[in-house]
Amino acid sequence: MEESGVIKKFLYVNRRAPYGSIYALESLEVVLIGAAFEQDVSLAFIDDGVYQLKKNQATDGIGMKNFSPTYNALGDYDISKIYVDKDSLEERGLTLDDLMNLTWEDENDNYAKKPSISLVNSEELAALMEQQDVVLSF
Amino acid sequence: MTLHTVNKSPFEANSLETCLRLARSGHSVLLFEDGVYAASKGTKFEAMLIKAMQNCKVHVLLPDFEARGMKTENLIAGVNTVDYAGFVDLVTESERVQSWL
Amino acid sequence: MKLGIMVSEGPYQHQASDSAYNFTKAALEKGHEIFRVFFYHDGVNNATRLTVPPQDDRNVVNRWSELSKQYDLDLVVCIAAAQRRGLLDENEAKRNGKDANNIAEGFRISGLGQLIEAGIQAERLVVFGD
C-alpha cells in the first residue's frame, strides 16, 4: 500500500470528545490505516479532543465499545508523536496524570519504552502546525 | 503560510478562539458558513477579531454572509470579502489548509 | 494545482457538502485538478441515490453525480463509514447478504487508504465538515 518515495508530514487534529459523536473513533481508524503508508505522522489533541486520552474510560453503562485501549497500540504502529495542548488540558482541570500513559519503543535505544505524549504550549503547537504538509481535522 | 477556515458561529463554538490562539503572524483566516457572524460589526467578538487582524488577514465568504441577511456595510472594517473562486485562490496561495471544524 | 477534498457531513443536515460542492466546482472552473473527493463520517450519506428532496430544493446527491460526469471527478466513499450507515454498492450488498444497494452514479466505495493517498498526491487538502 505504500506510496513510493513521497513522505509527507501528516497532522491529525482532534478537537472532539469521544462517544458523544463518532469523530474520535473514526479519526483513530484513519490514523491506523494511514500508518501503513509510512508517512511522518503527528497527532494533536486540542479543546475537547484531550478527553479522548482520558484514563479509565468505562463504557459498559452506555452499550458502546470502549475504544480507548486502541490509543495504546499507536506506538506499535510507529506513531510516537502525540501532542496535547496544555491550555486545553488545564482549562478542563486535567493534568498529564489524568491521561493514558501512551508509549512507544525506541529501536535505536535498545527498544526502551518512551512516552508518546508531549504537552505543548500555544507557541509550540503553532510552530508544529506550520511544519505540516497535510492537516486532517476531525 | 497557513489558511485557517472557521465555519462555526463564535457564539456556538470556540473554534475561532482556538484558531486565533494558534494562528501565526501572516496567516490567513477565512470565515464561512456560520463562521461569518464573527465578521459582522457590533458583536461581542468584534474586539477579538480586530485584534487578530493586526497579525492575520481575515476573509469572509460573501455568499455565506449575504445568505444570512448581512451586507458588506455590516462587515468589520478591514475584513476582505471573497467568493468561492476567491476561496480557491486562498487555498492555492497557502501552503496548507487547517479546518477548524 | 492538484487539490483533494474531504467531506465529513451528509447532505442537508449541515452546509458542509454544499460548501464542498461550491468550492470543488469553482476550483474545476478555474482549471485546477481535483485529485479526489473523499466522503467520510456522515459524509458517506451524500452517496445514496435514494434521496428525494422537494422539487424546489437543490439535489445534493445528483449535483455531485453530475459534476463527476462532467469533469471525470473521483468521488470515493469510505467503506467502513458507509457500511456502518447503510450505504452499499452491489458487491458489498451481495457480500453482506443485503437485499438492496443504494450508491448513486459517479460514486465508488473504497478504503480509507484513498484518503491518505489523496493527502499524499494532492498539493492541498481541504476538509469540509461540521
Number of discrete helical segments of chain B: 4
Look at the structure and give the CATH class of chain B.
Answer: Alpha Beta
Helix percentage of chain B: 25-40%
Query: What about the largest sheet of chain B?
Result: 5 strands, parallel
Count up the domains of chain C. Answer: 1
Report the structural category of chain B: alpha/beta
Give the strand tally of chain C.
Answer: 5
Distance between the termini of chain C: 26 Å
Describe the oligomeric state of these chains in a short phrase: heterotrimer
**Architecture of chain C, CATH level 2?**
3-Layer(aba) Sandwich
**How many structurally independent domains of chain B?**
1
Order of SSEs of chain B, N→C?
A: EHEHEHEHE
Number of helices of chain C: 5
What is the CA-CA span between the terminal residues of chain B?
Answer: 19 Å
**Side-by-side strand order of the widest sheet of chain B:** 4-3-2-1-5
Order of helices and strands of chain C: EHEHEHHEHE
Question: What do you see in this structure?
Answer:
The complex is a heterotrimer of chains A (138), B (101) and C (130). By secondary structure, chain A is an alpha/beta fold. Chain A has a single domain, classed as Hypothetical Protein Ychn, Chain: A (3-Layer(aba) Sandwich), CATH 3.40.1260.10. Chain A is 22% helix and 23% strand. The longest helix of chain A is centred in the N-terminal third of the chain and has 12 residues. Chain B has one domain: Hypothetical Protein Ychn, Chain: A (3-Layer(aba) Sandwich). Helix content of chain B is 31%, strand content 22%. Chain B has a five-stranded parallel beta sheet with strand order 4-3-2-1-5. In chain B, 51% of the residues are buried. With 130 residues, chain C is α/β, with parallel strands linked by helices. The chains are: A alpha/beta (138), B alpha/beta (101), C alpha/beta (130). Chains in contact: A-B, A-C, B-C.
